[in-house]
Amino acid sequence: MIFLAVFSVSLTSLCYEVLLTRFFSFSQWNHLSFMVISIVLFGFGASGSVLSLIERRRPGWSVGTLDSQAFLALMLLCSLSIGGSFLVVKNIPLDYFRMPLEMRQLTYLLTTFLVLLVPFFFKELSPGRTLR
After folding, report:
1. How far apart are CA 101 and CA 122, in angstroms?
2. pTM, to two decimals
3. How high is the pLDDT of residue 28?
4. Closest CA to 73 of 112, 126, 23
5. Would you state the pLDDT for residue 65?
6. Is 120 left (phi over 0), alpha (psi -120 to 50) or beta?
7. How confident is residue 119, by pLDDT bands cut at 50, 70 and 90?
8. Could you give the CA distance from residue 40 to residue 113 in angstroms, rounded to a whole number?
9. 33 with 40: CB under 8 angstroms?
């Protein structure tokens, strides 16, 4: 059953990456669609860094010791953050072409990057780490 959950979360994450690429290619003319790859990799790296810090602070703790309730909570956070992050990013008035003229567009870009990072952070925090 755990393998089915890991498969479905991984498939959902991959579909979300494709959705974000298509969303940025339509809304920003392919200029920001390549940002999706860096968002995903940064989310994966950030979750690995957090797990490494937790292992360093708690001597007896191992990343393979997540129980089923913690796994379920992380999967629920991942699924809720996928829908929530897309709704938030859809309403951010980011305009790539006005970026050299308005400094607040950089703030919108940073906000978009950080909001889209959250689902990939939660996705990578749990499935690959629980199977040992």
Report:
1. 35
2. 0.84
3. 79
4. 126
5. 61
6. alpha
7. very high
8. 10
9. no
The encoded tokens of residue 99 equal 């970026």
Percent of the chain with pLDDT over 70: 90
Tell me the one-letter amino acid at 120. Answer: F
Residue with tokens 């859809």: 90
- Per-residue pLDDT for 103 more than 70? yes
Question: For the chain, how far is it from start to end, CA to CA, in angstroms?
Answer: 15
Residue 89 CB contacts under 8 Å (≥ 6 apart), including other chains: 23, 112, 115, 116
Question: Does residue 92 surpass a pLDDT of 90?
Answer: yes
Q: Which run of H or E residues covers position 119?
A: helix 104-125
3-state secondary structure of 95: coil
Measuring CA to CA, which residue among 108, 122, 127, 131 is closest to residue 43?
A: 122
- φ, ψ of residue 116 to 5 degrees: the values are -75, -15
